[in-house]
Write a structure and sequence with these properties.
404 residues; alpha/beta; Aspartate Aminotransferase, domain 1; Aspartate Aminotransferase, domain 2; 2 domains; 7-stranded mixed beta sheet; 4-stranded antiparallel beta sheet; 17 strands; binds pyridoxal-5'-phosphate
Length: 404
């Protein structure tokens, strides 16, 4: 069991006020808050070992390089990758997806197909549209139903020998749906297609095992899992990473450069052009240490309780509708109140110190499916409490009265 007061004390921002009220932070789907342990690790890096990595023989450069590579090893362990060189540091989920989509440009031709799901974040739609424009491949969409679940019978029908890559999120940021990715991975492989999993919303809640999943690519950001902004991970199977051309050219990713020809560095450096976010890379490992010290079993138990409680309390409000009622869900509640624009509710509850997200959540196709402009999204983390949910429910009721 979590000692919730002790956990909350790890996060200095949770004790501040907003608009004169205690902060209630329910925008964890956009970014998580950071524990002091992580904040301290950032300044410790700059105070004690700041240097560029993989370049100098001097002591600091070696210390920084060692710390960076140790962190890569922590991430490798965390997701159970077979090799450390399958773990590429990126600037985040968006970067990771673009690196893979760009790599596939050299492998696709007219008539090939790319499958994306109806539940995707724009980051996992637009790079594939750009890829299709460039190559003449066709983008096909795996549809969802009114619960916000992908329809597997339709997925099965869409798959064919033309399918070259499938891309789907592990967990939807807009609705919280946990997708049946193991089934989807195995099905894609039956047709010889590669599959990328967007794990941005999964890694704050669970520990993915990329070997058990057998996915070809798994991408995520550090900032949604208690880590700093500006850093993320692209996991790729060794064979795929060797097959794909590098995404960016520059320093660090080369073996030899002449004006006639350049040869590329081995993995992982082939995909790590230029000076990376060294502090971010190192501290991402610190964030993983922190989350493991809390324990993912504890995290899931706390978040599931919050989800059930929030769902029950919110449904007491007349005219309130929840979008996303999948059987497998994480701690996200997306809702609207009849006759009121989500933005207006968001603005009023902000005045009361409550941070929720309003809008389309970078997933306009989902909003179009439900024929709504957006929703109010409360996304909970393990450091949130039922008392905070009560505060939100009262605030939403108040907003409803004011706007009716
Ligand atoms: C947040 C998010 C992204 C984009 O992550 P960035 O950190 O902005 O690159 C992509 N997919 C999902 C499901 C997300 O939640």
């Amino acid at each position: 069991m979590l000692d919730i007061n002790k956990v909350r004390a790890d996060f200095p921002i949770l004790s501040r006020t907003v608009n004169g009220k205690p902060l209630v932070y329910f925008d964890n789907g956009a970014t998580s808050q950071k524990p002091q342990f992580v904040i301290d690790a950032i300044s410790k890096y700059y105070q004690e070992i700041n240097a560029n990595i993989h370049r100098g023989v001097h002591t600091l450069s070696q210390l920084a390089t060692d710390a960076y590579e140790i962190s890569r090893g922590k991430l490798q362990n965390h997701i159970n990758a077979k090799y450390a060189h399958e773990v590429i540091f990126t600037s985040g989920t968006t970067h990771g997806i673009n690196a893979v989509a760009n790599g596939f440009a050299s492998l696709l031709k007219t008539g090939d197909e790319v499958l994306v799901s109806a539940l995707e974040h724009h980051s996992n739609i637009v790079p594939w549209q750009m890829l299709c424009e460039k190559t003449g491949a066709t983008l096909k969409v795996i549809p969802m139903d009114e619960n916000g679940e992908l329809i597997m019978a339709e997925y099965d029908k869409l798959l064919s020998d033309k399918t070259k890559i499938v891309t789907v999120n592990h967990i939807s940021n807009a609705l919280g749906t946990v997708n049946p990715i193991k089934y989807m991975i195995d099905k894609a492989h039956e047709f010889g297609a590669a599959i990328l999993i967007d794990g941005a919303q999964a890694v704050p809640h669970l520990k993915p095992d990329v070997q058990a999943l057998d996915c070809d690519f798994y991408v995520f950001s550090g900032h949604k899992m208690c880590g700093p902004t500006g850093v993320g991970i692209l996991y790729g199977k060794e064979d795929w990473l060797n097959k794909l051309p590098p995404y960016q050219g520059g320093g660090e990713m080369i073996k030899e450069v002449t004006f006639e020809k350049t040869t590329y560095a081995d993995l992982p450096h082939k995909f790590e052009a230029g000076t990376p976010d060294v502090a971010g890379g190192i501290v991402l490992g610190t964030a993983v240490d922190y989350m493991n010290s809390i324990g993912f079993d504890n995290i899931q138990q706390q978040e599931l309780e919050l989800l059930e409680y929030a769902t029950k309390r919110l449904l007491e409000i007349e005219g309130l509708k929840i979008y996303g009622t999948a059987k497998e869900k994480t701690s996200v509640v997306s809702f609207n109140i009849e006759g009121i624009h989500p933005y207006d509710i968001g603005t009023i509850v902000d005045k009361l110190g409550i941070a929720v997200r309003t809008g389309h959540h970078c997933a306009q196709p989902i909003m179009n499916y439900f024929n709504i402009p957006g929703t109010i999204r409360a996304s909970f983390s393990f450091y949130n409490t039922k008392e905070e949910i009560d505060v939100m429910v009262e605030a939403v009721k108040k907003a409803q009265l004011m706007l009716a």
